[in-house]
Each structure stands twice: as C-alpha cells, then as structure tokens.
Amino acid sequence: MGSIVFLPLKKSIEVQSFSNKTAWVTGASSGIGEQLVYALAKAGAKVIVSSRKQADLVLVKANCPNPENILVLPFDLTDEGGMEKVAAQAKQFSGRIDFLFNNGGVSQRSVITETQMDVYHRLMNINYFGTVALTKSVLPIMLENKSGKIIVISSLMGKFASPLRSGYAAAKHALHGFFDSLRLEMHEHNIGVLLVCPGFVKTNISVNSVTADGSKHNEMDNAQATGMTAQECAEKILKAVRKDKHEVYLGGKEIIAVYLKRYLPGVLHKILLKSKVT
Q1: What does the pLDDT average to over 103-119?
Q2: Angle at which helices 83-94 and 130-145 pack, to 10 degrees?
Q3: In 187-245, where does DSSP find H-type helix?
Q4: pTM of the model as a whole
Q5: Which pLDDT does position 223 carry in this prediction?
Q6: CA distances, 273 to each of 111, 226, 269, 277 (Å)
Q7: What Rg value do the Cα atoms of the chain yield, rounded?
Q8: Domain boundaries, the chain
Q9: How far apart (Å, rounded) are the C-alpha atoms in residues 76 and 80?
Q10: Is 168 a residue of the active site?
C-alpha cells in the first residue's frame, strides 16, 4: 500500500446553484437520467443529454422548459475509443462542463452458474469501464476550468450484494473503489465526486436487465414497481450535489442493509437468504 502523508484539508467545494452551469447526463433517455435533465433544466442549467437512443433524447429535449439550452449527444458507453471525440463535442456546447452525471448503465437478473462470461464483460464494459473512460475524457475540461463535480449513480448494490446481481454488484463495487480514489486526487483541483446509491426506484431498470444469455429480462420487479419515483430520486440527487456530499443512500427501508453489512454482516446474510429476490 505504501506510506500515507496526511495534508491539511482545503475548504470543501461549494455549489450554490445550477443556473448558467453546464451539466452532462448519461442514460438521459428515461428513468432517473430523464428526470435529472428536467430538474437541471428547470434550475437554469444548460444540459447535454446522452444515451444510445437518439429519438428518445429528442423527446426529452422537447419536454424541457428551454430546449435551446439542451444538446442531444447520443453515444454508446461501450465505445471506449470514441470518448475523447464525444467529450470534445460536449465541450463545444458552452466551452465547459461543470457537472458530469454518470447515470448510464444496465442491471442483471441471473444466477452465477448459468451466466455466460460475455454477459459479465458487457456489464463491466457499460457500468464500469464506460463510466471510467468518459470521466477520464471530461477531467481535462474540468481541470482547465479549475472546478467541476462528478456524480456517479451507483446503487445500494455497490455497498452489498444479493442473489441474481453478481455482475451488476461487482461493477458497482468497482465504481466505488475508483471514484473514492478520484475524489482524493481531485480535491486540490476543486473537483468533487459524489457517489449516489439508490435502492428501489420506479424505473425500467429491471425490465431492461440482462439475463444469463444476455437477453432482456422484460419483467418489472415488484420492489421496483413500488419504489421511490424517478422524479423524487433526481431531486434528492441534486440536493446532495448542492450540499457537496461524498456519498448518499436513497430509498426506503432497504437502506438499512448498508448498515447491517457494515456492523452485522451475519444478520444481513440471513435476511437475504430468506428474502424473495427477483
């Protein structure tokens, strides 16, 4: 690990407003990402909206109060080699990127013994490597402006795991390791990092999840259907950004599992064994 030298802390990064700032949201065509776009646009931000689905992004732009302040920029998170080109296009929009919301991703519903290795590669490429590659392409822009905030929409699965989510949980755990390091490295450059860990949110994440052979799950989980709304989740995320939080947990009683994992892991193990996981 090597030696660690403790240095005096600088004043924390303060974010007062999104007005006249530029935010980039991935996974912006639906769910939490779509609601983040609306909330940011309402707060006066210029917003770059990205996902693979250009037609859906165009609809999201049309639903914003000031569509002229929205840039539709479709791309695929698995296109690691194209990230720098996409980041350059994003920078041309306003000359800066103040906030990067890494929200794009895909979940999983399959047992380990049946899951093909290419499915695990896909989960890591989208949820981890794609997010890292995009962030690394945006960092030079933020460093040039001497400020910025990177928001990573992780999951409670980044803090513990459950059956049927092995590859998804692995990718989310990896995000925490990378972005915790990045937060420390970027502190002196006035660039913050927020890890957001939602629990059950009413989106199509379970419907769009991949199964053992990579096909679409096409089913809405009961917990997802009765979870917090994507709009409420987006509002809580922006509140955490304004407060310069490092990590937040969003959801209902499922948040308790984070603390059980930390302090009473045996109890959480027994609870998960008895739970109906879909």
Answers
A1: 97
A2: 40
A3: 222-225, 230-242
A4: 0.92
A5: 82
A6: 14, 22, 6, 9
A7: 18
A8: 22-274
A9: 8
A10: yes
Pull the structure tokens for residue 189.
């450059």
SS3 147: coil
Digit-coded pLDDT (tens) for 148-203: 999 999 999 999 999 999 999 999 999 999 999 999 999 999 999 999 999 999 99
pLDDT at 6 over 60: no
| pLDDT bucket at 17, cuts 50 / 70 / 90 | confident
Tens digits of residue pLDDT in 63-79: 999 999 999 999 999 99
Residue 272's nearest CA partner among 263, 42, 261, 62 is 261
Q: Per the structure block, which two tokens stand in for 145?
A: 């402006």
Q: Is 3 exposed, middle or buried (0-12, 13-18, 19+ CB in 10 A)?
A: exposed
Q: Would you say 131 and 154 are in contact if contact means Cβ atoms under 8 Å apart?
A: no
Q: Which residues contact 3 (CB under 8 A, 6 or more apart)?
A: none
Q: Tell me the average pLDDT of the chain.
A: 93
Residue 60 sits at φ, ψ, to 5 deg, of -60, -45
CATH class, range 22-274: alpha beta
Q: Which of 38, 120, 168, 249 is catalytic?
A: 168
Tell me the CA distances in angstroms from 149 to 69, 98, 122, 189, one per residue in order: 20, 6, 27, 11
